[in-house]
Specification:
Chain B: InterPro entries: AAA+_ATPase, ABC_AA/LPS_Transport, ABC_transporter-like_ATP-bd, BCA_ABC_TP_C, P-loop_NTPase. Chain B: Keywords: ATP-binding, Nucleotide-binding, Transport. Chain B: One of its GO terms (molecular function) is ATP binding. The complex is a heterodimer. In chain A, 67% of the residues lie in helices and 0% in strands. Chain A has a domain of 204 residues. Chain A has twelve helices and no strands. By secondary structure, chain A is mainly α. By secondary structure, chain B is an alpha/beta fold. Chain B folds into two domains: 155 residues, Rossmann fold, CATH 3.40.50; 83 residues, Rossmann fold (3-Layer(aba) Sandwich), CATH 3.40.50.300. Chain B is built from eleven helices and ten strands. In chain B, α5 packs across α6. The two termini of chain B are 25 Å apart. The chains are: A mainly alpha, B alpha/beta. At the A-B interface, α6, α7 and α8 of A face α2, α3, α4 and α5 of B. The structure holds adenosine-5'-triphosphate and magnesium ion. Magnesium ion (MG) binds next to α1 of chain B.
């Protein structure tokens, strides 16, 4: 929540560090720099403030549940944004990692009687393995094949969960313990975790690894020529995305106290992808806004009853026609300090 | 014992039935400028791709200071100190100019995921170092345009400079330039010539593919001539210029598309052109 996904300033850009013989460098003027920095900082803080104050406006169980779901959805979108937005890998089965996280924590906590927090190490291990297993063969493929294979992977995970005994078959797992007492504290815990996840994703985006992700997205050959091991870099994006998805899955399991295969359909993958594209691929702020819209809009359109998804679809189509780059796209413009 | 910086031996590359390179042997010493010339389709870019790991040669070997690097992946070749530019500019268009050049520092800066997440002093230091280096090489390459905006927004000639700055930020011992002056106007060409000389003064060896004969003869210590994948000459510019095979295949005609086609047609008439 602290900065734009693409081309954010490094902690300290050094205009004074290198001598600028002849010509020098033209950048943004100092005024626009300051205003842009403010804009960035305010945007993140404002978003967090809205999330923190929302329960004071409406703390009904329904509202809290919707807001908690929205926050979890933001985390999913932030994770998928690493894969699709930063690295340019089209993943159509991202929800599989969400399922892996939710099921791993759900199964371990209900079968072994562990508190949810104690399942986190296992969730990390399992999601990383899931990321590696699916990434290792597919990331060597061209990106259009990647889309199809990930789509298949998403379905395989769901069908497997439907057919295994340990995952409770079609009806899933019940009685998963919560992480906190009561929905308000759980909402705040979720907001905290999601905020950290979003800031973490943004920071990774501005790091050496994050730049490498974007080099791969922009031109794989040129990235290789600069010494970027593109396969490892793509794998890193995939694994980090898997971790974000898996941890969001734990929040999901705690939130609903039940997990079933119906929550992990292709439609869910498509909705997360929609949030990323709608907000602006590679732009953290945009993706957060996109995720909030995609998760809340169907609730706000509830009065339209059966037509709400139609209205939702039409609205999305209109937005994408009017603003194909997303609502709040990443700016390639870098801020000079 | 004293292996040359780069040595290419008996390089052969076939795409199915098409033989792009048919026996290419040449060496490049430290801080030397060697040009590779030849008509369109002669196999020059393919040779670069074999040296830098983008193509796996059908036969032959590529050695760097005596070490066999044939078949290594491009990033591994780059890690050993080889940088290149592309015939058709390959910048990271949507990223800032600075970020493009930071790519060259990717292997030099030390920073892990935890540093990035926690913004440790090491993160700040390495980012600062990367940025300083990027500015330094952009200055060196003489970039005048906006460094903070997206690379695609720069004029063509400036983009060429950015691509070279990016390669230099890799701090290579060997730099391969694929037609760096193509599409540049007269002034820009002169500046490019100057830049190439200054790069060499940094102790970097250069292999240059270039159609502009004036530039080639001016700057190279040695010239390798390719024609239909075959090496037809290798020597100092003055010698190569007088070589009858070279004259027939390539020189003495304007580096004009139609003329080269003509030259190619005449050469196809009946030559066995050994290396
Ligand atoms: N990936 C590829 N697949 C098939 N054929 C190829 C491939 N790359 C190059 N070739 C062929 O190899 C031959 C040499 O091409 P190359 O690009 O190396 O020529 P060049 O000397 O760089 O020409 P130019 O001056 O036009 O850049 C050409 O006949 C080309 O069609
Ligand atoms: Mg070429």
């Amino acid at each position: 929540m602290t900065g734009p996904g693409g081309g954010a300033p490094p902690a300290e850009a050094t205009s004074e560090a290198a001598p600028a013989p002849g010509g020098g460098r033209r950048g943004a003027g100092p005024r626009s720099i300051a205003s842009r920095l403010m804009e960035n900082r305010w945007a993140g803080l404002a978003g967090l403030a809205v999330a923190l104050l929302a329960p004071f406006v409406n703390a009904s169980p329904y509202a809290l549940s919707v807001m908690t779901s929205a926050a979890i959805f933001v985390m999913l979108a932030a994770g998928l944004n690493i894969v699709v937005g930063y690295c340019g890998l089209l993943d159509l089965g991202y929800i599989a990692f969400f399922a892996v996280g939710a099921y791993t924590s759900g199964v371990l906590s209900t079968r072994l009687g562990l508190p949810l927090v104690a399942t986190l190490p296992a969730v990390l291990v399992v999601t990383v393995i899931a990321g590696l297993v699916i990434g290792a063969p597919t990331l060597r493929l061209r990106s259009d094949y990647l889309a199809i294979v990930t789509l298949g992977f998403g379905e395989i995970i769901r069908v497997t969960a439907t057919n295994l005994d340990v995952t409770g078959g079609p009806s899933g797992i019940y009685g998963i313990p919560g992480l906190t007492e009561g929905p308000v504290s759980f909402y705040y815990l979720t907001v905290l975790v999601v905020a950290v996840a979003v800031i973490g994703a943004a920071r990774l985006g501005r790091s050496r690894l994050g730049r490498a992700w974007r080099f791969v997205r922009e031109d794989e050959d040129a990235a290789e020529a600069m010494g970027v091991h593109t396969y490892k870099v793509k794998m890193a994006a995939y694994v980090v995305g898997a971790i974000w998805g898996g941890l969001a899955g734990v929040l999901f399991a705690a939130h609903l106290s039940a997990v079933s295969p119906g929550s992990f359909t292709f439609l869910q993958s498509a909705l997360v992808l929609m949030a990323v594209v709608l907000g602006g691929m590679g732009s953290i702020r945009g993706v957060v806004v996109g995720a909030v819209i995609v998760s809340l809009l169907p609730e706000l359109l509830r009065d339209l009853a059966d037509y709400r998804y139609v209205a939702f679809g039409v609205l999305l189509i209109i937005v994408m026609l009017v603003r194909p780059q997303g609502l709040w796209p990443a700016r390639p413009k870098e801020v000079a300090k | 014992m004293n292996a040359p910086l780069l040595s290419v031996e008996g390089l052969r590359l076939a795409f199915g039935g098409v033989v792009a390179i048919d026996g290419l042997t040449f060496a490049v010493g430290e801080a030397e400028i060697v040009s590779v010339i030849g008509p369109n389709g002669a196999g020059k870019t393919s040779a670069f791709n074999c040296v830098t790991g983008f193509y796996r040669p059908t036969a032959g070997s590529v050695r760097l200071r005596g070490r066999d690097i044939t078949g290594l992946r491009p990033s591994a070749v780059a890690a050993l100190g080889v940088a290149r530019t592309f015939q058709n500019l390959r910048l990271f268009g949507e990223m800032s100019v600075l970020d493009n050049v930071r790519a060259g520092t990717h292997l030099r800066i030390r920073q892990n995921v935890l540093d990035a997440l926690l913004h440790t002093p090491r993160y700040r230091r390495s980012e600062r170092e990367s940025t300083e280096q990027a500015h330094h090489w952009l200055d060196f390459a003489g970039l005048r345009g906006d460094r903070y905006g997206p690379a695609r927004a720069l004029p063509y000639g400036e983009q060429r400079r950015v691509e070279i700055a990016r390669a230099l930020a890799r701090r290579p011992d060997l730099l391969l330039l694929d037609e760096p002056a193509a599409g540049l106007n007269h002034t820009e060409k002169a500046e490019m010539l100057d830049l190439i000389r200054r790069i060499r003064e940094q102790g970097v060896a250069i292999v240059l593919i270039e159609h502009d004969m004036g530039l080639v003869m001016d700057v190279s210590q040695r010239v390798v001539v390719l024609n239909f994948g075959r090496e037809i000459a290798d020597g100092p510019p003055d010698e190569v210029r007088r070589d009858p095979q070279v004259v027939e295949a390539y020189l003495g005609r304007d580096a004009d598309e139609a003329e080269i086609e003509q030259a190619r047609a005449s050469v196809a008439g009946g030559r066995d052109g050994g290396a």
